[in-house]
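Researcher: Here's my situation. A collaborator sent me these components and asked whether they could plausibly form a single complex. I don't have experimental data yet, so a predicted model of the whole assembly would be a useful starting point for our discussion.
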Amino acid sequence: MENTVSAEAYVDVMLRVNGSARRLRLDSRVTLLDALRDELDLTGTKKGCDQGACGACTVLLDGKRVLSCLTLAAQCEGREVTSIEGLATDGRLHPVQEAFIRHDGFQCGYCTPGQIMSAVALLQEGRAGSDEEIREFMSGNLCRCGAYPNIVAAIREVAGRGSE
Ligand code: FES
Ligand code: FES
């Protein structure tokens, strides 16, 4: 096969990550996932499939969940990115994080940051009205350990409290 050498195009990008402005100079092809993990050392966001199929890389972009492996960092100029590291406030875990712990919503934990980010968004979207609805709107987040019943229980508890 013929070798192709493509010229790298670097771009300056300013992201607001977990409330702080972060300026980066990046290859324009770098994904938001790689920018978070490799440039900003925010390794809580996990790389599972790296092709949009597992949800492990879920973060919030302007409050809406996105798959960071399918999002170019350069598209996020000036936008607000929230990763799992940004959920706790004043040293207190987010209610969804606490509920996951209470309900054992994880085993190996690899999918957990993505599950939690998705759950936070789902609650904000008002999509946690029933177990069925929770399962449907969490269906993009796969768990190889099969922790689904406990994940649903954790989300249901937070939804029942009317918290986010
Ligand atoms: S790593 Fe992004 S969806 Fe799997
Ligand atoms: S807890 Fe292991 S993949 Fe979900």
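Model: Some features of this prediction you could bring to your collaborator: The CA atoms of residues 101 and 159 lie 16 Å apart. The chain has a mean pLDDT of 94.
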